[in-house]
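Box 3.1 A note on notation
Throughout this textbook, protein chains are presented in two layers. The first layer is the amino acid sequence; the second is a token string describing backbone geometry. Keep the layers aligned when reading.
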Amino acid sequence: MKASVTICALAVLAPAMATPLVKRQDFSKIEYPPGTGENLHEYPPGTGENLHEYPPGTGENLHEYPPETGENLPFYPGTSTPNPFFQFTSTYHIRATPDQVVNGTTNPVFTGGLAGAEATYDFGINVERELICYFIKLTGFRGEYQSPARTATHVHQAARGRNGPPRLAFPNPAGDGNERFSIGCMQGPFTTGLIVNGTDTGEGFNLAQIEANPSGFFADLHSSLAVPGAVRGQFPG
């Protein structure tokens, strides 16, 4: 009897089990309606990637970004305002050579310096902050640095062909091979380490004196092989 019931139940369920499943739509073969979607030949006029250029005043074809925006700003607001220490009231480029070196104060004579040596001095001065920044490049130097001052690299106060006391003493150029460099900034009050009549030759000096009379100052550098000076160069005036 139980077997008969089971057979009958299977007979009732069989038609339902034989009914096929609904076929799912194959979306890969659908074409988007005209004017839409991925099968467009191109984007509609005035839109998208087939533009000749972006509309005026937008995008990458701008001559420059609108005022007070973007990459044509002098600096980005609140992020990179210029450091006042690097705003100079005057700048100077000096070429120092051996033929400008003199020795003596009463009747100075040209010494010829250290043959083959040469230096360039680039100075930026900010008199309001009593700050001088320097980039000194020295080539062809021989011997050892030698000076009674704290270093052998100076700015002296004297006109061309004359001698005078050092007012600024810079770190001596360092490096391997033929080229040596000294780079940095110094802020007053200044000292040189050279004491004359009980007073440092940098005492009382200020950078405004250079700006007032640049041609009254020169840069030099001293060697044990040319103690009066290896090279010298006058400030342009």
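Residues 1-22 have pLDDT under 50 and may be disordered. The two ends are 128 Å apart (CA to CA).
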